[in-house]
Amino acid sequence: MMGVFHCFSLHDCFHRPKVRFTVRDRDALGVDPLVREVPRAAPYFFLSYAHTPRHDLNDPYDPDQWVEKLFNDLCRHVMVLTGLPRGVRPGFMDRELHPGSVWPDRLAEALATCRVFVPLYSRRYFESEQCGKEWMAFAQRILHHRARGSEKVETIVPALWVPVPVDELPEVSRSIQFVDPDLGARYAEHGFYGIMKLRQFRSAYDLAVYNLARRIVEVGDRANLSPMAPADYESLESAFGAGDHTRPNGHRLRVTVVAPDITDLPKGRGPYHYGHNSQEWNPYRPKLGRPLAEHTADIVRSMGHRPEVGSLAEHAEQITDDGAPTCPGLLLMDAWAATSPAFKESLRALDDAHCPWISVMVPWNQDDHETTQATPVLRDSLHSVLPRKLEEGRIAPRAAAHGIPTLDQFTKQVPEIARSAIAHYLRHATAHPPEGRPSIERPRLQGPMSPFDGNDAEASP
C-alpha cells in the first residue's frame, strides 16, 4: 500500500518527528530521491573554520579555544532569537576533525540539514582543502534547490576571523557580502580574533557577535533550503580550486550552448525544451526548472571558476581556433542541433581543429520521448559532424559526449569534465613567465672539478 507523504516547511521540521516513506512512495509521488527528511535535531547553522596548529607541541595552549568561544556565544544568541525547543542544536562546530582525518557522519549530516552555512574567513581557511569541501557540500544543496526552479536563496553568511585582502579571496567567495557594517568598524578592521583578544574591544565584540547571530537568524528564517542526503566526502571538490593559491580567481571557463531556438527547430522536434535563444534550452525539463546554461554556470562558480556563457555563433571563432588556447571550455550539445544545417559547418570546423581543451557534453534525457524515438538518426548525425570529439579524451569525457540520461548525472559530471578540459588547457596553453625575472639556464653536471681549476687558493679539506 502506498505511504502517505506529509508536506511541511523546513521550519516545521524542527518541531516534528521524522517523516519516513519508501522508495516506491518516492517514485510514485515524484519525490526527488536526493531530498530527504530533516532530523529533529538538525543544527540551525554550521560554523566552518580552519584549525590552527599549535606552534609548539609541548604547549598546552589550544589556539582554537577562541573559535569555540565565538561559536558558543553565537549559539546562545541564536537560541534566544529563534525560540528553538530544547534538544535542538542552534549550531554545529567540529572540534575534532583535522587535516587528513576521516570525515565523520555527523559532520556530513550537519552540512546536509543545517539552514545556514557560516564560513570563518582567514588566509588559513582558503588554504584548507577540508574547508573547501565543506563549502562545496553545502553549495550542492543550493545548486539542487536552484535546479528545481526555486528562487535564489542567500544561505551563506561569512564572518571574518582575521581580515583577508580581497585579491586573495577565491572566486566562489567574491560575490558574497562578507563585511556587514552592522557588525562595527572595529570588527571590519581586526576581525573576530582581534576584538576578542584585546580587552579594550570587548564592547565591539559583543556588538559584532550579536549582530552576526541576528543575521544568521534572518537568513535562516527566510530561506527554505531543502535538506539532502549527506555528501560523499571522497567525491567532493574543494570550492577553492586545486590548491594553486597564486591564482585565487580560478580559471575562466567558456560554456558554449549548441541548441536551436523555438523559431528554427529541426523536423520532428517540438518546442517544449527550447526558448527564444539557445541559452534558454532546457533538455531536462521539468526536473530542471531553469535553462541548462544557468545551471552549468552555477556549478562552475561553485568550483571556484568563472563561467563565460554564450551560443555557438558567439564562440565559434574562439573554439575553432587550433592555435594556443585562450581558456578551457564546455560544449553543451543538443543532439537535435546535429541534424540542423545551421550548426553543421561550425561543428565540423570544431571537430577538424584539434582542441582537447574543449569537452563535449550531450544531455540525453531518458524521459524525452521525442529524443528516445529518434535515437538512431540523432546518433548518426552526431557522429557525422563530431566524429573526433565524440571519441576524444578518457572514459568520462567520452561517456558525457555519448549522452547523459539524467539531470543528477549531468550535475555530478560537470566538475569532472571541467577538470579534464582545464588539464588539457594547462598542457597546451602558452606559458607566461613573470616579468622582471632573468631566465636561468638549467644547471648541467659536467664532472668533478679539480680543486685547483681556475683557483690558486688551497682547497678546503
From TrEMBL:
Origin superkingdom: Bacteria
InterPro entries for this protein: FxsC_C (IPR026367), FxsC_N (IPR047603), TIR_dom (IPR000157), Toll_tir_struct_dom_sf (IPR035897)
Region described as Disordered: spans on this chain: 430-461
SUPFAM superfamilies named in the record: Toll/Interleukin receptor TIR domain
Bias (Basic and acidic residues) ranges: 434-444
Domain TIR, chain residue ranges per copy: 45-180
GO biological process, one term: signal transduction
Xref: Pfam families: TIR_2
NCBIfam families assigned: FxsC_Cterm (TIGR04276), FxsC_Nterm (NF040588)
Protein name: TIR domain-containing protein
